Amino acid sequence: MWGGRQEDRAVNAFAARAAGDALDAAGRTHTGLLRPANEDSLLCEPPVLAVADGLGGHPAGDVASALALEPLADLAEQARAADGPVQADALAAAVRRGNARVHEDAHANPERRGMGTTLTAALVAQEQVHLAHVGDSRAYRWSPNAGLERLTTDHTPAEEAVREGILSPEEAAASPDRHMLLRVVGTEPDVEVDVPDPVTLAPGEALLLCSDGLTEPVPDATIAAVLGAGPSAEQAAEALVAAALDGGGPDNVTVVVAWRR
Predict the structure, then answer these.
(1) pLDDT digits 0-9 by tens, 39-80
(2) Distance CA 232, CA 259 (A)
(3) Residue 19: exposed, middle, or buried by beta-carbon count in 10 A (0-12, 13-18, 19+)?
(4) Are strands 206-210 and 2-3 parallel, antiparallel or unpaired?
(5) pLDDT tens digit string along 164-193?
(6) What pLDDT was estimated at residue 161?
């Protein structure tokens, strides 16, 4: 199941749960406490999971995030129907098709010119997780022994300054440049997609995809504690959104959690 604009109007949230191949996955999105609308979308269709955060301050962010996920939803359907494993490069290819779809729609609809979105996606193939990433939504792995490990790099000037040794991670977290995106889906005809090295998701470990509506108000230690306590993906997803709201809910917040059982 996937969505973002498709919300339960009573609670302004969307939740999905799926189980298969010993994987328990759930997603949840919420407008937050300060934004007038939710421009995030999510995909929770194992073996494909994704989070997209439509650009604030630009037109039709909700349209951009939903369109960008359509090729990934197609990939999920193909993967479930395939006899063997899906090629890892299919994930990045689907992100690039999403980029083209958003860009073409913006040019066909002048009122949407300039729309774009972040996109962080995962393909879970048995115990291997393949990632494709553009923007500042994030992927994390949590394990009982190693705790919370960030798997993606934000495409922002602040993050570049950390890599170059100009800023510490703590300084970057307070930098005004932390919200300035250097790379997004949909604003240009082509996009460079980060493809980190695959990681293993062992039994008892969790994968988290999230928009910055979670990571801005919620410290890593709290995220790790929630995942460590979560008896199910759905309960962990709900608890993470609740933590973001407790932290002020300054932005739309979206999470997808997947546990390897």
Answers:
(1) 999 999 999 999 999 998 778 999 999 999 999 999 999 998
(2) 8
(3) middle
(4) unpaired
(5) 778 777 777 777 777 789 999 999 999 999
(6) 73
The pLDDT, as a whole number, for residue 226 is 97
Number of domains in the chain: 1
How far, in Å, CA of 117 to CA of 183, rounded?
Answer: 9
CATH code, domain carrying 107: 3.60.40.10
Q: Which residues contact 228 (CB under 8 A, 6 or more apart)?
A: 142, 144
- Of 45, 43, 125, 137, the closest CA to residue 89 belongs to 125
Rounding to the nearest 10 degrees, give the CA dihedral for residues 124, 75, 88, 47.
10
Residues 135, 184 contacting (CB under 8 angstroms): yes
Encoded tokens for 65: 């995030």
Nearest residue to 47 (alpha-carbon basis) of 72, 16, 15: 72
CA nearest neighbour of 48 among 93, 103, 115, 102? 93
According to DSSP, the residues that pair with 8 across neighbouring strands are: 13
Q: What is the pLDDT of residue 85?
A: 76
Render 72-107 in DSSP notation, one character per residue: HHHHHHHHHH-SSPPPTHHHHHHHHHHHHHHHHHHH
Note down the domain range covering 149.
2-260
In sequence order, the β-bridge partners of residue 117 are 54, 185
Query: Which among 8, 195, 13, 242 has a CA at the least distance from the CA of 95?
Result: 195
Q: What angle do CA 242, 245, 246 make, to 5 degrees?
A: 85
Pairing of strands 23-30, 13-20: antiparallel
The whole-angstrom separation of Cα 241 and Cα 220 is 14
**Residues paired with 223 in a beta bridge:** none
